[in-house]
Amino acid sequence: MVKTQVQFPDHLYKEAKRISAEYEMSFAEVVRRGVEAVTKAYPPGRIPAGTWTLPDASDMGEPLLPESEWDMASRDEA
Hints:
By secondary structure, the chain is mostly helical. The chain has a domain at 1-45. Helices cover 42% and strands 0% of the residues. The chain contains three helices and no strands. The chain has helices at residues 10-22, 27-41, 70-74. Helix 1 crosses helix 2 (27-41). The longest helix has 15 residues, at 27-41.
């Protein structure tokens, strides 16, 4: 296990301490669970933004509405 030091904004620290007390777990456990949740939300394998390119366009055929009606259709309320 690695030991590290981090800084939290006051409000975030207070909330983590509250969770720690309410759920009877250590502050370190709250932080570990938070990091686990973040690592699941951001899995490895993402393509870095600088390497992404716009995909090639594909022919989707003729529009269903003539261009002159696009403005009216965009304001249509359901």
